[in-house]
Amino acid sequence: MSNSDSNFPSQLASSETVATDNQSLGQAVEPRFEEAISELEQIVQNLNQPNIDLDEAINLYERGVRLAQRGRHLITHAENRVNQLRELLTQPEGGGGNAPRSEGRN
Prior knowledge:
Elements (H helix, E strand, L loop, with lengths): L2 H22 L8 H15 L6 H37 L16
Helix pairs in contact: 2-3
């Protein structure tokens, strides 16, 4: 096992501890985007090990799928926020999108 492989269980254990603590408070812990990507990279390294146990591989793969879904969700949310900010930039200054229009046109 390489040094990075030996770090995986401790990283997993610390994230499980946080999850367990917050779940006891009724809160689900979701990783930030950077954390999800980092964990996905670690999972890929572990899945590429030649001696990986089948059950462990399936569990890692399942976790990877959940992390990928989380990443997609976070990217979609970020895109939506950027689009909302762009819309704010295109609105006339001082006027919200609901300002009455001039009645000069009939």
